[in-house]
Amino acid sequence: MAQSPRSPSSQAPYLTVSVSDPAKMGNGVQAYISYKVITKTNLPEYDSPEKIVIRRYSDFVWLRDRLFEKYKGVFIPPLPEKSTVEKFRFSAEFIEMRRQALDVFVNRIASHHELRQSDDLRTFLQVDEQTMERARSMEIGIFKKKPADLMQIFKDVQSKVSDVVLGKEKPVDESNPEYEKLKNYIFQLEDHLAEAQKHAYRLVKRHRELGKSLSEFGKAVKLLGECEGNALGKAFSELGAKSEILSIKLQREAQHLLMNFEEPLKDYVRAVQSIKATIAERANAFRIHCELAETIKFKEID
Predict the structure, then answer these.
(1) How many alpha carbons lie under 13 Å from residue 168 in its C-beta half-sphere?
(2) Which residues form the PX domain (predicted)?
(3) Burial of 279 (0-12, 13-18, 19+ CB in 10 A)
């Protein structure tokens, strides 16, 4: 029998995490969603084989920021975006999509051969809420801003480097043609994925709007049937009932498209942005290397 990835063998080293049970905490502008994070592992550096902690979105942001700062050259998994619109922040659909995305985020880290060894990951998975809050408050520099999503991180990094990062200018020659080829591919891939995600969004929206229209049409026709005689009234009632059934099917199809088409595309877009953030760091390091090489060269000439 095939073994579930959530039920790893006791012989092999494993680290699995699940994000579950989202719950609204607080009221008004102070309200937020908390998540239960359950860790199961046989790694010796962890305190116990199973640990349950409560985390909020800003804790996941802290983890991503710390990894981005410490693991240069590693593509850090992307976080789901943070909604600032009140009516969407606490909708059941948004909360569930975020929960799933956070689960994917932390398990990608836990399965990465380097990132899973991070002290910050162990802190995130083991300490209580008060200790976690203190860890967040100790952040310094660029990460004191606690950017809401990966795109903001990329913008913060981008503002610190020249246009060479984005390929707009090239004052120094890149010594690695394979890297240049990969960078160009990533930028083209982002454009194509963003375009695909835009069309997926429109497709989901059209399905939802059509489903809503059919529901309203069905209700109106059924009311009309109540005003008519036997045969005609029955026909209107049946038409209304069929319309409502079709409406439900379209709403389900819209949800299926959202979770299995639009959301994966959005995740791919965020992943490419994560790669771009790493490229930005690499380009900045390369620029500094070239500047130092030039400085040394001039000193030798003098």
Answers:
(1) 7
(2) 13-132
(3) buried
Q: Find the radius of gyration of the CA atoms of the chain.
A: 25
Instruction: Strand 32-41: give its sheet, edge to edge.
Output: 15-25, 32-41, 50-56
Q: CA-CA distance, 101 to 86, in Å (whole number)? A: 20
- The 10s digit of each residue's pLDDT in 50-82 is 999 999 999 999 999 999 989 988 899 999 887
| Span 116-159, pLDDT tens digits | 999 999 999 999 999 999 888 886 444 454 444 455 555 554 45
All structural domains of the chain:
1-148 (3.30.1520.10), 161-302 (1.20.1270.60)
Q: Contact at 8 Å (CB) between 65 and 85?
A: no
- SS3 track for 89-109: HCCHHHHHHHHHHHHHHHHHH
181 CB-side CA count, 13 A: 3
55: CB partners within 8 A, 6+ apart: 19, 34, 35, 37, 124, 129, 132
Q: What's the pTM value of the predicted model, to 2 decimals? A: 0.74
